[in-house]
Amino acid sequence: MTTLALPRRVLLLRRWTHLATRARGWVRGSEVAVVGLAVLIGIAVGLLAWGMGAAAHGLQRLLYGLEPHLRLSAATGLPTWQLLLVPCLGGLALAGLNRIIRRWRPRAPVDPIEANALRGGRLSLTDGVVVGAQTVLSNGVGASVGLEAGYTQMGGGLASRLGRAFSLRRGDLRILVGAGTAGAIGAAFNAPLTGAFYAFELVIGTYSIAALFPVVASAVSAVLVARALEAGTYAVETAAPSVVDPVYYPLALLVGALSGLGGIALMRGVGLTEGLLARFIPSATLRLMAGGLAVGGLALISPIALSAGHGALHMAFMTEAPAWPVLALLVVKAMASILSLGSGFRGGLFFASLLIGALGGKLFAAVLAVVSPPGPDPLILAIVGMSAFGAAVIGAPLAMTFLALETTGSLAVTGPVLAAVAVSGLIVRRLFGYSFATWRFHLRGETIRSAHDIGWVNDLTVGSLMRREVQTAPLTMELAAFRGRFPLGAVSRAVVLGEGGRYAGIVSVPEAHAASPEASIESLLHLTDRVLLPSMNARIAMSAFEAAEAEAMAVVDGPGRRVIGLLTEAHLLRRYGEEVEKRRHEESGIASA
């Protein structure tokens, strides 16, 4: 290397670093730039949704010998050996893939909801690749799971990676992750409003003007790309009347109530099945193979058990059927979804819940037709059931309402749908308290109930708030010596240390000066069994202060009870209030203005 080449290269590197720094600063300070990033993310997510959908459908065509435009859940006449063998061997293949992934990446992937709730939007793109591969394989071999989990993981991971490259603030990064998932769901269902409100309700955890523009920009961009590519991922298309009789409103309330109870049963069924299979079949590989074999057995009754159910949903909207066959199809699909997820196949319940809800609405209409012929329009109640059951399981009532609107183009049907999803969501909220995603977190031991940002609370720990300079005194010190060491007005309290420097309690300096000369330090001790640990977050610390009715508490290192700091309630409340106000500013867009 010549002496002239080195300075030129260094100069170019410095220029590039300077331009990158200026670009990061511009993006961090510009709302328009964040919207521009969201558009790019939407375009990329639209391409990813098309690619993943094509890969899964291509795998189904290869393994089941399907015609190019035939959906697996609507395929009839498939050989028995194929229905039993393909999902079973598919479980074996997924187990092998999981083993390879664990060696390469042993920790479990972080979900976009979890990332936004606990990690300030920090999400790994590699996790998206992992989940995407698992969902494509699971769906491709016929397991009763949808690809939406892979779509949202990829969309959120891509958004987080791009946002961190530009050093976005915590609030902006969370919004961008929501925008990535909005594009994923929008492209998956050809429904931008559904994608946008999915992001608001599930991934961002709140609606704000600051989040509106990037989320909508990503959702619309992804849908346009998916339409241009004719992705045909999960698009739901049906027709509905432009006028709906008011009698459908009380019927919708009943469908919503039944959907809420049914959604709870489905979610609990997944958790119960997972626990039972893990108990009786310790091998993860055998669980997957057994789950695949069970799904194949259900497919012998009806192909509705296979894959997400796109073809079956289209047939559910378009065909008439009496009550008993509809009930059988509903049970088959519900059992297939429970067994697929409970045995370890990777995917989502989004589309399956739509299909189960549509079948439930048709079943309700068929029962009413038997009781009082000719009964209500089964198509209207199928749309109502689809949205209400989806709201119960997914936990996004407005997203499900907009899905009905974008599916049918009928404002008249949207009214009963809104009533149904409100009842369904209320029942699940009061009786269960989780959506399917947060229920899965609960089974893992997490305490997340939404994507609302609580990660900053965990970051605001006692260790980061405490004062390390602590006034201490030995328990054996005479009261007179204590008064001399801590005169009135110098400090308000002192931490007393017992044998071996262990925490013994806190003494109030004014109380010590007011005590009789015969009193001892030990008789003046307070909070002898009340301490804080440095790992406690702000909320736990506030609860500890409230329980102790104290103004200040010592912070100890754990079992050794060695004092490492002191925290006052006033300082804790002030810092907590500052952080709350900061999050409010971020949500309203003030921080990024």
Describe the fold and architecture.
This protein is mainly alpha-helical and 593 residues long. The chain is built from 24 helices and 5 strands. It has a 3-stranded mixed β-sheet. A two-stranded antiparallel sheet has the order 4-5. Helix 23 (538-548) runs antiparallel to helix 24. The protein is elongated, with a radius of gyration of 29 Å.
Key words describing this protein structure:
two-stranded antiparallel sheet, 24 helices, three-stranded mixed beta sheet, Chloride channel protein, mainly alpha, transmembrane helix, elongated, 5 strands, about 600 residues
Strand order of the main beta sheet, please? 1-2-3
Order of helices and strands: HHHHHHHHHHHHHHHHHHHHEHEEHHEEH
Estimated radius of gyration: 29 Å
Unreliable segments of 5+ consecutive residues: none
Number of E strands:
5
* SS field, number of helical segments: 24
C-alpha end-to-end distance: 47 Å
Strand content: under 5%
Mind summarizing the main beta sheet? Answer: 3 strands, mixed
- The assigned structural class equals mainly alpha
- State the share of residues found in helices, binned by percent: 55-70%
Mean pLDDT comes to 85
Shape category: elongated
